[in-house]
Amino acid sequence: MRRSIGERLWATGVWALVVFFVINLLAMIGSVVVNSFGTRWFNTWLPAGYTPQWYALAWNEFGLPDILLVTVEVVGAVVLISGLIGVPTAYAMARRDFPGKKATMLLFLLPLLVPPITYGIPLATVLYQAHLAGTMWGVILANLVPSVPFVILIMIPFVEQIDPRVEAAARVFGAGTGRLFMQILVPLLTPGILAALLLVLVRTIGMFELTFLTAGSTSQTLVVALYYAVFAAGVRPGQSVDAMAVVYMITTLVWLLIALRFVNPTQIVTRAKR
Amino acid sequence: MSGAQPPLRWRLRERGLDGVTLLVLPGVLFVLALFIYPFLYGLVLSFHPKQGGALANYVTFFSNPYLYDTISTTLVIAVPVTLLNVVLSVPVALRVRLMRHQRLLTTILVIPITLGTVMVAEGLLTYLGPRGWLNRTLLEVGLADSPIRLVHNYWGVMLSLVITGFPFTFLLTLSYVTGIDPSLEQAGAMLGARARQRFLHILLPLLAPGLAITLALAFVQAFTVFPSAILLGAPAGPTRVISIAAYQAAFEQYDYSLASAIAMLMAGVQVVIIVALLAGRSLLFRGPASSGKG
């Protein structure tokens, strides 16, 4: 198939667009990293000198040790609980046809389709009434709302791939549902569980709205602390805010790289396709 | 229990209800308690205002320009950026589909989605600022005489929504495009259809249902823009979006009832737009064209 000049021009234009986007994206990330190490940066391409002092400042002034600890606790709890609720539910959804299954499926799709800020405000109101908002558990519960359905929707196809005869054989040999889960299903489902939980982990680290609406001063995660740092940018040197931003970026991107060993990048957005 | 009828347990099992089915209960109860209940609670609360009759909150919203203007402000940001992202995604996705090493590009593009809007806002504040690299480049090249103001206004929010929104629409579109059987297009080419004809008569109709969903999801995301409208925009004026109004009602005036009413209106606008999009899809494209996945 020979391509005409018009088609080749069109293809070049499309590639130019992609390259332009990627360059701007990398420059945006690069300028944050460079600024976080810079001493003085005024009317030049690069700062006058480099120093690690902004990281020490950010570490002490923003209370990063506490924030990181809270982040680990919240994210850990969300990952663990969403796995414990989501995997058995996904198993039942994949294996049984029961009346009302379509409605149940819709129920699990809604929290993924409705944006967090829309349901976050009524959710925060309810959590404040229950005196849970402002505490660690309030933040964990709020973050579980999109995570549990997310695990369910990711796990359903993984369960469907397993041959039901394997389970039937285990039942014939007298395994109950609990034993079936621990000895047959969990080992077979490990790749799926790993993928689902890593994606929940990445999404929870970056989940701003729900944490922001429910967190108190002692239950802030890294992304909310970063928001407050940027919001009050005049108070502290811009470089230390950028140093904090770099800490946040590293935390997120390390887990993203690990997650991408198990999932395809397109899977990160297509969870709610149907 | 009569002798003719099998035990209840068996009858339930016939309909797919047994011990295993009960495993859906934790998930269902969780979503009911923490998603459906708060939403309904918010809906009821919105009709119990601090003062006045049942509809007082909605009357307040639609009689105060500081509040009702947020809907048009949000639409002025969300509609153009959604259309731009989706329109750019289609040609790029059609081109990338032919690429052998897609993985590197998709990995780079998933980064801004993962970083999230707060991080992108901070990055753009540094990059687009008066002393940032972008303005430096424009000055050096001679495209501008003085730094262009791109942050703390409409354009800052717009660009942040392109940075996080374009990768999202692109990856979604790519997943739909790769689902189209390439032999359909080859058949068209063999019969002499030019690239433009193949796109209009073969690819676009097959892609339309996916594009409607992409448009709906992208719009809903842009419509609920929040942190970047505050950090990168002018939250007191040109980028006072509806989520800022809801947030301020709840956490600055402590009027949870008004805040719930605004949240319900936010949900209402989203539902109207999505229903319109999906209805348009079924009006325009009907029949077997939508089952081109193979």
Please explain how this structure is put together:
The complex is a heterodimer of chains A (274) and B (294). Chain A has 12 helices and no strands. Chain A is mostly helical and 274 residues long. Chain A has 2 domains: 1-51; 53-272, MetI-like fold. The relative contact order of chain A is 0.13. The mean pLDDT of chain A is 89. Chain B has 294 residues and is an all-alpha fold. Chain B has one domain: MetI-like (MetI-like fold), CATH 1.10.3720.10. Chain B contains 12 helices and no strands. Chain B has helices spanning 8-14, 24-46, 56-63, 65-96, 102-128, 133-141, 154-177, 182-190, 195-223, 227-231, 242-251, 256-284. In chain B, helix 4 packs antiparallel against helix 9 (195-223) and helix 8 runs antiparallel to helix 9. The longest helix of chain B is centred in the N-terminal third of the chain and has 32 residues, at 65-96. The radius of gyration of chain B is 25 Å and the shape is globular. At the A-B interface, helix 1, helix 3, helix 4, helix 5 and helix 6 of A face helix 2, helix 4, helix 5, helix 6 and helix 7 of B.
In brief, what are we looking at here?
Chain A has 12 helices and no strands.
Helix content of chain A: over 70%
The value of Rg of chain B in angstroms is 25 Å
Highest-level CATH class of the largest domain in chain A: Mainly Alpha
Largest sheet of chain B: none
How many DSSP-defined strands of chain A? Answer: 0
CATH C-level of chain B: Mainly Alpha
Q: Report the CATH superfamily of the largest domain in chain A.
A: MetI-like
